[in-house]
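Problem statement: downstream parser choked on a complex file, so we are re-checking the raw output for the 2-oxoglutaric acid run. The parser issue turned out to be on our end (a line-ending mismatch), but while we're here, posting the original submission so the record is complete.
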Amino acid sequence: MQESLWRIDDFNDLEDSRISLYRDHFSQTESDRFFSILQKIQWSQNEIIVFGKKHLEPRQTAWYGDPGINYSYSGITNEAKNWLPFLEEIRKRIQNICKSTFNSVLLNRYRDEKDSVAWHSDDEPELGESPTIASVSFGATRKFQVRHKTKDGEIFSTYLNHGDLMIMHPPTQTHWIHCVPKSSKKVSERINLTFRQILQS
Ligand SMILES: O=C(O)CCC(=O)C(=O)O
């Protein structure tokens, strides 16, 4: 399958999508501070169901948000822990840029090159029809890939670095899937935060 390297300027040129990338949105000092706090929070490795089979998710996660906000994917349901002050600080910073509000955040910890997240889109019903997802990365650089759901299958890849903010605007989740693949080279720890707005019934 063809793989193309995305340049930042190309982001908005992908059909049916709108993705903005703000390199070094958080300074080195801020990013180091957030990364060090994040390493100490309580992480879990959940069992997920993929094609009817149970597996340990190949990453650790944590779920924070407003009281009562739950989020389910791949057979697991996360109940939100209360916002921590530093997460609120990051949320405020990115809400100003996104012009969107977020009531929750999924934290993802990739311990090394063997951790990953498979191809998926953030299109669970509780996210609404076409959500905005804001993604902040700290720690090691990892490859991030996107592929159109129905077009010729070309894969577009970029690298997300310490302090980068990426915003996937509507209608990206409707038409594209994304993943963080395992790496054949040794990689140290990376922590990613995906801010979401869960609709309450
Ligand atoms: O780690 C990342 O950059 C992506 C995370 C992701 O796709 C997700 O949690 O839905």
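For whoever reads this later: The CA atoms of residues 179 and 195 lie 16 Å apart.
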